[in-house]
Amino acid sequence: MSQEPEFKDWQQIIDLIGRSSDSKQHGILLTMLLTRDEREALVARVNIIRELLKGDLSQRQISQMLGVGIATITRGSNELKSKNDDEKQAMLELLKPH
Q1: Where does residue 7 fall: left (phi above 0), alpha (psi -120 to 50 degrees), or beta otherwise?
Q2: Secondary structure element (H or E) that encloses residue 5, with its range
Q3: InterPro entries, from UniProt (predicted)?
Q4: Is the dihedral of CA 50, 56, 57, 58 positive or negative?
Q5: What is the rounded average pLDDT of the residues 39-65?
Q6: Confidence category of residue 43, pLDDT binned at 50, 70, 90
Q7: Per residue, what are the HEC states of 38-96?
Q8: Mean pLDDT of all residues in the chain?
Q9: 52 and 74 in contact (C-beta within 8 Å)?
């Protein structure tokens, strides 16, 4: 009998995170799924996207502020280029401090 993994694509992971958030278990789930380095990289990535969306700083300034390489900033910038204005605005709203 051949076994297959339960989770096969990214959308299933997104759905899993959504379900974990609904049940207030997302902190535990993400801590279990991500190493400390991955969690720190994710924090940096969120800050990169936020700063790029705000548009107040150059990529070099963001790099210096966050202590990450310019290539990391460029990857975030390239990802944003694939998004439309509505998606960018929605993300900027989501990333506003609470």
Answers
A1: beta
A2: none
A3: Trp_repress (IPR000831), Trp_repress_bac (IPR013335), Trp_repressor/repl_initiator (IPR010921), TrpR-like_sf (IPR038116)
A4: positive
A5: 96
A6: very high
A7: HHHHHHHHHHHHHHHHHCCCCHHHHHHHHCCCHHHHHHHHHHHHCCCHHHHHHHHHHCC
A8: 94
A9: no
Q: Residue 3 pLDDT > 80, yes or no? A: yes
Rounded CA gap, 26 and 16, in Å? 9
Which residues 6+ apart lie within 8 Å of 28 measured at CB?
20
pTM over 0.85: no
Q: What is the pLDDT of residue 7?
A: 93
In this predicted structure, the answer to whether residue 98 has a pLDDT above a threshold of 90 is no
Instruction: Identify the architecture of domain 35-95 in CATH.
Output: Orthogonal Bundle (1.10)
